[in-house]
Design goal:
Helix content of chain B: 25-40%
Strand content of chain B: 15-25%
Oligomer: heterodimer
Structural class of chain B: alpha/beta
Radius of gyration of chain B: 21 Å
Protein name (chain B): Hydrogenase formation protein HypD
Number of strands of chain B: 11
Pfam families (chain B): HypD
Structural class of chain A: alpha+beta
Number of helices of chain B: 16
CATH topology of chain A: SH3 type barrels
Keywords (chain B): Iron, Metal-binding
Organism (chain B): Jeotgalibacillus haloalkalitolerans
Family (chain B): Belongs to the HypD family.
Chain lengths: 71, 368
Amino acid sequence: MCIGVPAKVLDIQNEEALVDVMGSRMYVGTFFVPEISIGDYVLLHAGQAMTIVNQLFAMESIEEWRNILRE
Amino acid sequence: MNKLDLFSDHHLVRQSLAAVIEIAEAFKLEKGRMPVLMEVCGSHTMAFARSGIKQRLMDHVKLIAGPGCPVCVTDQKSIDAMIQLADEPDTILCTFGDMMRVPGSASTLMKAKTEGKDIRVVYSPLESVKIAQQHPDKEVIFLGIGFETTIPILALAIREAEKMELHNFTIWMTTKLVEPVLRELLDAGEVKVDGFLLPGHVSVVLGKTSYDFLMKEYQVPGVISGFEPVQLLTGMYKLIDLLHNQKVDILNDYTHVVKEHGNAVARELLHTYFEFGDEAWRGMNVIPKSGLVLKDQYARFDAKKKFNVAVKEPRKVKCRCGEIIRGLINPEECVLFNKGCTPVHPIGPCMVSSEGTCAAHYQYMREE
């Protein structure tokens, strides 16, 4: 139940966004992420976008881990 | 490859496993025992079992499943009350799918549905508000279970019902909060834990700073972790590294999703509608202020106030979900596991839920 699903934002209207979830399109609520923009990746939970996934931080996490493994 | 798919990259997973084993062995050499970590979140429990990481690390790290599966921690009496609610006349009960097969003392919501009660599985609490709008002649009740990830969405549902001026929508609140239960576990001292793998999605709302009490008051470290194999392993590595170096800290290893102070919009909405209330946890009795209840000014949306449901004390069963939730035993130590209790015929919620420890052990860790 607490599993979040990442989705790409395709369109935004009022408090709703059209998102792509692994090829499926659906409308989700955006109340909790008012700063949302088209092209963002968001994490969904029970029909709501709960946070914007920071792709730069994701890459930094991977790079940090690769550095640990190289040490 | 999508950037986020890198967190499941096989090559990186294998290297990460080797790194975790190396640091766990260094800890063992120094302390003479394995590091003991508790994954608080039920989704972590399932991800550890499904990915094979728990099985692979069995001789190096002791992983204990914590009280973070919302269905599993719902106490028997609440489940009985929810099933009894379905008997109310002209009522539509809405719930998440996981709740349907959880056994109460004598029935399940699924059984009640097959007997003709109007019980509907919804993906979002907001769907139940729409159902209430479409059926003004019926009372629509949403069974509000969940942790801090879900509670803001319950608040959003009430906001919608308020905007629509609905008088036939209520929520049966039995929500749970992470901090009080972690305090309860640590204060009870029944389970010995070196550090916590902290829940990724609850932390989306709460933020990293909400766990400072672990470090400051209990001197126990924690790492907020994601759910993909590499994220599970990096979280473990950082936690064992802290332990090995005798550092107490709270780290965020899910920075691309979890922010320092969480989601302020969600928390503000949550506190608009709810206040702290005492909650009964399965196997742990009532923990003071461990849940949220509707404020008095929103009592019209409170199913517990609108419907007079009185349930008897539940009958005793041999199910040991309560001890499993508290991290005291493994599923295999329950006499019912894989005998009377299976996913097809579950006795306790830990076998029913998609985040349940028993379900994880049954599906991925059982030895035939």
